[in-house]
Amino acid sequence: MIRCVNHEDGGDSAMAGPLSGVRILDCTTVVLGPWAAQQLGDLGADVIKIEPPEGDTTRVLGPARNPGMAAFYLGCNRSKRSIVLDLKQDAGRKALFKLAETADVLMHNYRPEPAKRLGVEYEKFEKINPRLVYVAAYGYRAAGPMGPKAAYDDIIQAGSGLAALQSVVAGQPRFLPTIVADKTSSNGVVSALLAALFARERTGKGQAVEVPMFETLVSFVMVEHLYGETFKPALDTAGYKRVLNKERRPYPSKDGYFALLPYTDGHWKEFCILVGRPDLAADARFQGMANRLKNVEQYYATLAKLCAERTNAEWVELLKNSNVPHGPVNTLDDLFVDPQLEATGYWQEVEHPTEGKLRLPGIAPRFSKTPPEIKRLQPRLGEHSVEVLKEAGFTAAEIDAMLKS
Description:
Structural class: alpha/beta
Strand order of the largest sheet: 4-3-2-5-6-7
Distance between the termini: 44 Å
Helix content: 25-40%
Oligomer: single chain
Radius of gyration: 25 Å
Number of strands: 13
Largest sheet: 6 strands, parallel
């Protein structure tokens, strides 16, 4: 079950999530860090979003009902509290160091040189709190020649080889129409951060963790595409041949498009019987996965020809009790009424105190004993500044001086 706690109730719940009691200082902006921090907040962590006076840049991206609360920001910043600190001022850095004394994690996505100029490098935090896990999300590993460079999703898609892979279907390099580098690296931040927290439970010591977008996406791309270059000397070229084929696509049916993938030998035999083509099961080109890969263009062309013989509804009916992988080709709008998502209660409708009714994606993982929840709705800029600073021990006069500056 996924609960959504009312915004006004302070985020308390009857059952704590798996990260309950973990406090995270989130100094990140845009998507790479904020989406990671949101996932951790959904899992029960107390995430304090530390923003500059102008706020996260995503606060102005996309449609909005109120200034500073645009759709892009809302998608990456629930389950957090917001505090404004100007880290260019001594008072702002002092406040951050004070907060770090009792925090479990500090995460940022400043490049190495700006981090040094701001005075927020790991060595200073290690002296303040040796148990702190310090996570820096960069464009590139800091030690390399690209370490000082700025990086955004488009640049990383290009550099990692992902954009060039689109040449197979588009005839030229293209970007995927989703910020896959940011979001893949964001998941990398989550896994690395959790691993460092686990190591701290074993050793009692925190550490600095670096999560670079470029190297993370190269790892992502090369899972299957290292291929023949896995071996030294190479046994084949790089690039997994099954997916580097322009015919790998949803196939036109009688009334739309449908996805078919009889992948294993068992799938293929069952599929051939269901479509009334036992001759294809006996075809030497398609006997065994290795032969289907060797003759992948003919394999895909055969699937395309067969798919065109039925409507989507007929395919669903034919395959509904089979083991053959298949499914619809959903548009973005189709996802709002997808039967699977509806049946599992994925989409959440909430009432935000300033933004009105919102639709939120649910939390994908489920836990039997420590269920995640949408802990807090998206905060307004600096909404919790006074609250968080009081918790850290600052006096009313000190807080007032920071607000004025």
